[in-house]
């Protein structure tokens, strides 16, 4: 029989949107300064004048906190975009990119690259909280285009649009040592994505 004291279940209190945004911004700042491995819940608590108990009540741990911070700072959720045309939707997605923030985020994701491959919990959290919601938003956008008759339902490129868009972000920094800004993404959409979809 265990002799360890049992603690009452902590009640999850909802942070205000302003406080949550403050915490997320601090997480991203720390990530840029010391990387994923150097970020600790103690460090976030000290930077934000929050208790570790509060952090753990809101997020299960460091991977979920980091993934949530990355998701929160996105300028627009794909599920919120509906201009009435696929080209309009994709271009709006590209034009919502803040170039200064994108430059910072490109460097940030480079720094996270190694951690993603060596930390299964971070990989899973990023997939669940960041990648999959955006993937579903893009799928819904493409389905609307199919429903409108812009794209043939049997177009094989439909299965690879998420890969193409993610590739645009990753490849430019690797090949050209530049981040994928709004102008680049707009050209990429017109030259690669829409022709593949025969739009």
Q: Can you give a write-up of this model?
A:
The chain has about 200 residues and is an all-alpha fold. The chain is built from nine helices and no strands. It has helices at about 15-40, 40-50, 50-60, 60-70, 85-95, 100-120, 120-150, 160-175, 180-195. Residues about 1-10 have low confidence and may be disordered.
Helix and strand arrangement:
Elements: H1 17-38, H2 41-48, H3 52-58, H4 62-72, H5 86-95, H6 99-118, H7 120-148, H8 161-175, H9 182-196
Helix pairs in contact: 1-2, 1-4, 1-6, 4-7, 5-9, 6-7, 8-9
Quick structural gist:
The chain is mainly α.
Instruction: Name the average pLDDT.
Output: 87
Number of helices: 9
Low-confidence segments, given as residue ranges, are 1-11
Q: How many strands, which pairing sense, and closed or not: the largest β-sheet? A: none
Index terms:
elongated; 9 helices; 199 residues; single chain
């Amino acid at each position: 029989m265990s002799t360890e004291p049992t603690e009452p279940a902590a009640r999850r209190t909802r942070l205000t949107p302003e406080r949550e945004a403050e915490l997320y911004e601090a997480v991203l700042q720390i990530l840029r300064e010391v990387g994923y491995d150097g970020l600790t819940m103690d460090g976030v608590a000290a930077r934000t004048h929050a208790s570790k108990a509060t952090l753990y009540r809101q997020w299960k741990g460091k991977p979920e906190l980091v993934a949530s911070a990355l998701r929160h700072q996105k300028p627009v959720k794909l599920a919120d975009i509906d201009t009435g045309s696929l080209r309009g939707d994709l271009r709006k997605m590209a034009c919502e990119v803040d170039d200064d923030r994108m430059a910072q985020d490109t460097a940030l994701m480079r720094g996270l690259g190694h951690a993603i491959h060596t930390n299964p919990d971070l990989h899973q959290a990023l997939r669940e909280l960041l990648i999959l919601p955006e993937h579903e938003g893009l799928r819904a956008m493409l389905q609307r285009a199919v429903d409108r008759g812009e794209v043939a339902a049997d177009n094989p490129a439909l299965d690879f649009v998420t890969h193409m868009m993610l590739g645009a972000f990753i490849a430019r920094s690797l090949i050209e040592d530049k981040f994928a800004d709004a102008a680049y993404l707009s050209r990429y959409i017109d030259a690669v994505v829409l022709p593949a979809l025969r739009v």
